[in-house]
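> call design_seq(struct)
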């Protein structure tokens, strides 16, 4: 991965992208299978592979992963699931996969710090992309990804699969139409008791022989190999992720933005830290982030060391509080609980006003109906929507702009926590208001020779 090769690759993919953007709508015939390449096939990549293999109008023809065992496992799964595919190309360097002219679209399920480079390079190479959340590691990366998607005329689906859930679509419409009255308070929760060991405290060591550690780090700073910095546990380190705030929080904020019809917070603040101190993580194990949104709505994300359900014992991921009722949302269900409405003004509370208090309580009633709804895993529906949009060239359910906004809110929450500040946010300019110190954290310096494309 020397710099000369990198420059040559950039020229190649840019030229390919221009040609592909001009002819994208004519590439695929109605009965032609969409040829897909996978970049990252561990954990979430493996789950997405299952969903794509169920779609009869696509064919997975290439996989890329830095870990040899993951590549072999994925190829075995592909050939067993698709009798028409006798051999799957394997790559360690994702750029070699992108150079293939027979790849129409790619799935990017790598660690967060790799999303921007791989997605932009895919667009430049004329490929459509399904990229996992969170979209980016920093706000500037996300905006560059949006710009590249538009410049090269590509289709992009971000892995915020609730956007393809009929249950969530129904709930978003219900709330945006005033289903529980004026929403003033929304709380999101990540509740998990990791005591006593968390992810543990392994010592630094030499990397495994079958893992290219330097390539895994990519644009991130050089650090000694530690098994907690790889695979799923990379999310506990700021060089590669933003903790559970960007892991689960992006899902929650995306749903909140969708239901509010607002995607630009006005201000943010945060408190928390390694209070339980389980392990060698960098990110907090206990965290509270608050945002304000237009229309006078207070939103929060709570990371709690517990297994007991918050909010009066009702298990939920997101709680929407309105003047006429409350919605409790989990991954697979939601419940509408009507509020008891009193017709009178709240009386002053003095020893002489007990009768007024009783009168106040009389005539309490509800104005909306209770309801419950259930849903199922929407990943296959999200994959189906992506493939349909590759053919139609219409925007996906989780388009890159909305996903960028839903990633931005958690990212600036981490900045507020890092600086221990209350920060006002200009969502149109994507800058903080009169805070250059915070603005400097909207991007980071890539390790040479890696460079974010202009």
């Amino acid at each position: 991965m020397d710099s000369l090769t990198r420059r040559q690759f950039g020229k190649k993919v840019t030229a390919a992208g221009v040609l592909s953007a001009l002819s994208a709508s004519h590439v695929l015939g109605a009965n032609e299978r969409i040829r897909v390449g996978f970049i990252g096939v561990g954990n979430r990549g493996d789950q997405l592979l299952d969903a794509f293999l169920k779609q009869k109008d696509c064919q997975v023809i290439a996989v890329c992963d830095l870990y040899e065992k993951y590549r072999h496992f994925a190829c075995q799964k592909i050939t067993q699931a698709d009798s028409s595919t006798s051999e799957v190309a394997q790559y360690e360097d994702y750029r070699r996969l992108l150079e293939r002219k027979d790849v129409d679209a790619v799935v990017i399920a790598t660690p967060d710090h790799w999303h921007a480079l791989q997605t932009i390079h895919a667009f430049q190479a004329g490929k459509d992309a399904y990229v996992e959340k969170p979209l980016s590691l920093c706000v500037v990366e996300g905006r560059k990804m949006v710009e590249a998607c538009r410049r090269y005329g590509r289709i992009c689906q971000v892995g915020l699969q609730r956007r393809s859930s009929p249950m969530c679509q129904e709930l978003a419409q219900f709330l945006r139409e005033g289903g529980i009255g004026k929403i003033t308070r929304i709380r999101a929760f990540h509740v998990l008791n990791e005591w006593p060991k968390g992810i543990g405290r392994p010592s630094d060591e030499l990397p495994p022989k079958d893992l290219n550690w330097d390539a895994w780090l990519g644009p991130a700073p050089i650090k000694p190999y530690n098994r907690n910095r790889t695979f799923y546990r990379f999310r506990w380190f700021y060089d590669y992720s933003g903790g559970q705030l960007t892991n689960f929080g992006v899902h929650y904020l995306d749903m909140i933005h969708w239901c509010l019809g607002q995607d630009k917070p006005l201000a943010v603040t945060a408190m928390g830290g390694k209070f339980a101190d389980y392990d060698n993580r960098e990110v907090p194990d206990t965290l509270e982030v608050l945002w304000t949104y237009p229309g006078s709505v207070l939103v929060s994300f709570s990371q709690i060391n517990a297994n007991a359900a918050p909010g009066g014992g009702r298990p939920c991921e997101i709680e929407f509080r309105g003047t006429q009722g409350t919605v409790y949302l989990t991954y697979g269900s939601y419940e509408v609980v009507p509020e008891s409405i009193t017709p009178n003004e709240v009386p002053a509370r003095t020893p002489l006003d007990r009768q007024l208090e009783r009168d106040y309580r009389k005539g309490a009633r509800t104005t909306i109906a209770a309801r419950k709804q259930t849903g199922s895993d929407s990943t296959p529906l999200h994959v189906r929507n992506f493939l349909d949009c590759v053919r139609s060239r219409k925007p996906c359910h989780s388009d890159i702009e909305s996903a960028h906004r839903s990633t931005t809110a958690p990212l600036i929450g981490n900045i507020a926590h890092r600086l221990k500040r209350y920060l006002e946010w200009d969502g149109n300019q994507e800058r903080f208001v009169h805070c250059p110190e915070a603005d400097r954290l909207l991007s980071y310096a890539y390790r040479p020779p890696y460079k974010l494309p202009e």
